[in-house]
Automatic annotation (TrEMBL), chain A:
Domain Circularly permuted ATP-grasp type: 77-450
Protein name: Putative circularly permuted ATP-grasp superfamily protein
InterPro entries on file: ATP-dep_Glu-Cys_Ligase-2 (IPR051680), CP_ATPgrasp_2 (IPR025841), UCP005522 (IPR016450)
Pfam families: CP_ATPgrasp_2
Protein species of origin: Marinobacter oulmenensis
TrEMBL record, chain B:
Occurrences of domain DUF403 (ranges): 1-308
Species for this entry: Marinobacter oulmenensis
Name of the featured protein: Putative alpha-E superfamily protein
Record InterPro entries: ATP-dep_Glu-Cys_Ligase-2, DUF403
Amino acid sequence: MQIKKPASGIYDELFGEDDRFRPHCRMLEQWLKHSSEELITDKRREADVLFQRLGITFNVYGEEQGADRLIPFDLIPRVISAADWQKLQAGLRQRVQALNRFLYDIYHDYDIVKAGVISAEQVFANPQYQPGMQNLKLPRNLYSHIAGIDLIRHNDGDFYVLEDNLRCPSGVSYMLENRRMMMRLFPELFSQLSVAPVDHYPNLLGETLSAATLKPDPTVVVLTPGRFNSAYFEHAFLARQMGVELVEGADLFVSGNRVFMKTTVGPQQVDVIYRRIDDDFLDPLAGNPDSMLGVPGLYAAYRTGNVVLANAMGTGVADDKSIYPYVPDMIRFYLNEEPILNNVPTWQCRKPEDLAYVLDHLDELVVKEAQGAGGYGMLIGPKASKKELETFRALLRNRPGNYIAQPTLSLSTCPTFVEEGVAPRHLDLRPFVLSGKKIQMVPGGLTRVALREGSLVVNSSQGGGTKDTWVLEGESC
Amino acid sequence: MLSRAASSLFWMARYLERAESQARLINVSLTMALIDVPEDRTEQLSVPLLVSGIHEVFFEYYEDITPQNLIDFLVLDSRHPASIFGIFQAARDNALQVRGNLSSDVWESINQAWFEMKDLQRRGVRESSASSVFDWVRERSHSFRGAAYGTLLRNDAFHFLRLGTFIERADNTARVLDIRHAMATKASEEQTTQAFFEWTAVLHSLAAFEAYQTLYGNNLEPMNVAELLILKPDVPRSLHGCLREIATLLEQVTSGDARRARRLASSLYANIRYGDRDYIAECGLHNYLVDFLERIQDIAGQIQQDYMGWQP
C-alpha cells in the first residue's frame, strides 16, 4: 500500500525523520507495505459489520433518536513506546493524585486558597463548586475515582495535557472493543509483537468501585440516563463486564436515607453508584427539579454517608478550564514535586492583560469556553474565517470570564486509512486513571483521530474516529 | 434481579415468539387463500388480522384485503406496532434495555435480526418472495432460541425470558385454535373437500402437523386436533405444554413473598393436566378457549405485579 508522508514540522507517531517508521514500529511498516489494498478493504468492511452487529454505536444529540451511528474505526494502530508510557504513567499518577488532593482541600481546609496559590473567587464562585460537599467525609478522601486525561503530542515530541475529565469521562469501551477487533482481524500481528494488554480494565474498575466504600462486599451498580444517551452502549458494556446491575433513576429509591434498587425479590440496598449522570441531574430535590433521570433523596442519602457516588459530587470544579492552568501549581503545593507532564500555556481571559493579548493574537490562538465540552463553542484561530474571528472578538469582550485561550498546538499525526489511501491525520490520547486503594491504569487509552484532512477536532460528535492504542512491552514492533 | 430488567426480558421474549407465530399464521393464510374458492379468500386472509385483533386498524389504511396489502401491512408497516417490523423493533428495544443481562450471542442474534429487518423493509416484500421472508423470520426465531438455550446462565433472567415465551405461546395457540377451529368445523359441516385443508391449516399454523400424524395418523378428526393442541403435554405449542413450563418456571424464580402468580398458574395447570376431551366438548371449544385466554392474561398480569411493577 502507498502511504502518504506526514507534513513537515509535525510529529508523526509512526514516521521518524528519515521517512521510515520509527525504529520501534518497523514491523508495522513491513506489515502495512505488504498488505494489499483488497485485504485492507475487506478487513475494514468486516470491522464495520462486526461493530454494527455488536451494537457498538452511539447517538448524536439533535439527530433522530436511535440513529445508531458507528464511530469510524481505523485499522492502523497508534503505537507508544515502552519508555514513553513509563513517563506518561508516572505523570498521570502524579496529576490525578494532586487533583484528588485539591478536591479534598477545597471542600475541607482551603489550604491552597489560604496560601494564595489560587484565589478564593476562582474556587468558590465556580458554578461547579458544590457547597453541600463541604466537610463531607468520603472514604479514602477520594473524589475522582475514574479520571480521563486528554493528552496530545506536540511537534517537540512531548506529551501535553489538554484537559482533565474528572466527572464522567467516557470512551473506555471503545478502547476495549478496538483492541478486541484488532486481535480478531489481525491475530498474526499480535502473535509476533508484545503489545501490553488492556482487557483487564473492567476488573480494575470493579476493584476501584468496591474500594470506594469501606463496607465489605458492597453492592455496586452503574447508573445510566438510559438508552438514548450517547454513551449507553458503554454503560451497559461496563456493567456487564463487571457483573453488576445497570440501573436507571427509576430503578432506585431512597428510604430512611438509604438507597435501594427495585428487584424481583423486593428492595435491595445499594452501596456504590458508578453514576454516568451529571451532578445536576442526580437528584431532583437537590439539583435540577425537572430531572427525570435522577433519584429523589439521593443527595441526602449521600450526605449521610450511606451510599458512595463515583465520581463524587462537585468534582467539576477541578477539571474546569479556568482551574486547569493551576494544576502544575497544585502538584508542587500538595506533593512537593515538579510536574512530570506538561500543561499547555493558557491565557485566562478574565485577566485584563491576558484578554488584551488574546484579542491581539486571536488568529493564532485556540479559544475555548471555560466550561465547554465535546468540541462545541470553540474557535481555532488559524482556521477561522474573518466573520468567525469577529464573532468571537465580541463574545470575548462581552463575557471574558467564560473563555480561555491557548496557542494552536500542532497535534501529532498518524497514518490513517482515508478515502484517498493512507494519509496522516491528527490525533489525541485519553488514558483512564483509576483511584481506589491505589492508583491504577491499563497501558494506553483511547486514541481519537480527526478524519478530515488538517482537522484538529477529534470528538466523535464532530466526525472523529478511533484507533487501537498499542503500548509496547518490549523494545520494538 | 432488577424488576425493570425482568420486565424487559419477559417482553423481549414475548415479542420474538409473537414474530414467529405471526409469520406462520400469515404464511398459512396466504396458502389457504390460493386453495380456497374465490369468495372465501377474504375470510382466509383476515385470520391473522383477527388473531392479532387489528382487523379495524387494517381498514384505516387499506380498502380491501389482498395478499399484497396483507403482506405490506403485517410484515413491513412501521405505522403500527403489530407488524413483524414493529414486533422486531419492540423486541430489540427491550433487548437494548437489558443488554447487561444477555449473553453476547443472544444480543447479537437479536441485533442482527433487526438490521436484516431494516434492510428487508428498504427492499420491500413481493407476494412471490413472501414465503422466503417467513422462513427467514422462523430461522431468526430459532437462532434466538438456540442462543438463549445454549449460552444463558440458568438464573432468574433466563426464567423470566422463558416465561415471556410461554405466556405468549399459550395465548397465541388459544387464539389461533379458536378462530381456525371454527372455520374448519364449518367446512366439515358443509361436507366439502375444503375441510381437509382447513384442518391442516390449523395444524400448520401451530407447527403441529407432523406431531399430529405421528400421534393420530392420517385421519383428521376435529376432536383429535383440539386434544392435541390443548391436552397433549409433549406438543411444544399445546396449552398443556406451555402451562407445564409456566408453572415450573414460576417455581424456579426466586420469590420473596410473591405467591399469587404461582397460585394462578398452578391452578390453571392442574385444570388442564387433569382435564379431558369430554370436558372440553361439554364446555364447547370456543367457551373453553375464551376462559383459558382470560386466565392466561390474568397470570401474565400477576407476574408483572408480583415481580416487575411493584412500588415501594
